[in-house]
Design brief:
alpha+beta; 16 strands; globular
Length: 310
Amino acid sequence: MSAPTPATTYPFYQVDVFTTEGYLGNPLAVVVALDPSLPVPSDDQMAIFAKWTNLSETTFLLPPTDIKGADADYRVRIFTPSGELPFAGHPTLGSCQVFLEYTKGASGKGSKKTIIQECGVGLVELLVSADGSIAFAAPPLSKTGPVEEDKVAIACHAMKIDRKSVLDTQWIVNGPHWFALLVKDVDTVMMAKRTPTEQSKHLKFGIIAQYPESLRKNPQDPLFEVRTFPHAVGVDEDPVTGSFNAGMAQWLIGSGKAPSSYVAAQGTAMGRRGRIVVKRDDSDASKDGNHMKVWIGGHSVICIEGTVRI
């Protein structure tokens, strides 16, 4: 019987995303394999480690490859416990936070800087703001339009909500195969059940509602409450979901259902306090509203720093 391959030690971080206070956002495990003297973990090693962490996503920071001559700062591979994703929002922001920490780019305070991430959907632009928050440019939607009624019915049944409470539906596919249900009120969002059914185990969906003006004391208060249920990847509910909020923003802003900038809350039903800051870039007057860049941002907090042997 052959001896096992010796493990390699990598820098390791666990970061909480979409929050200014640790343990109230969405956790992410990040393995840093940027050192050219270290071997890059194999596909199997990445998948096994991501399954072991049992977080919604685990990422691996790798040296970039050349994409049409563009210079990415790093490449990221994103794994769930059950497989690899081409793109996901909170792993994008959390991975960028770790990249800045590891390379001593720190938080970018006092200036703005642009970071280019390479991932399964290509190159994603990130903006690091003076307050240390990071935002990514929402990738283009590859599928839009109303959701088929049978899938709406499956989602409503899984969440135990009345189909009549759904005001509108939309496919918002930007890598992950999300669809969204806009419902009549926040109470419907908060009362939704998260347990998968046999049929919902093949779907990834989210539910959103707008807060009444009477509950919003200032512009920083959330305009929408969001919950997401990525049952297709074996997760009952995700605390805060960047990819879903990116697609949601493109849909709601583009259709006039939301202003060009707003804050969304997510994770409330799970005891979290996720905050997603959305802002459309209206600076390019040559583009119509549906083609302007939409930024999805928030803060991240590094909670664990050390090494891991893989």
